[in-house]
Design brief:
The protein has helices at 2-42, 49-53. It has 54 residues and is mostly helical. The chain has one domain (2-53). It is rod-shaped and about 60 Å long. This is DUF115 domain-containing protein.
C-alpha cells in the first residue's frame, strides 16, 4: 500500500514538472508570436494571422 502511494506521489510530481515545461514553452511561443503578428498587421497580411496562431 505504501509503495502504491509513493509511486502515485512520484508520478504526480513528474506530471507537474512536465506540465511546467509545457507551460513555459507555450509562454515562450506566445511571446515570440506577438511581434510576428504585429509585422503581419503592418504589412496588411491579416490572412496569415490564423496560420501563425495555429
Amino acid at each position: 500500500f505504501n509503495k502504491s502511494i509513493l509511486w502515485i506521489k512520484e508520478h504526480l510530481e513528474f506530471m507537474e514538472l512536465v506540465y511546467g515545461h509545457i507551460k513555459a514553452q507555450e509562454n515562450a511561443l506566445i511571446k515570440n508570436i506577438l511581434p510576428l503578428e504585429e509585422k503581419l498587421k503592418e504589412r496588411k497580411l491579416d490572412k496569415w494571422m490564423e496560420r501563425v496562431r495555429r
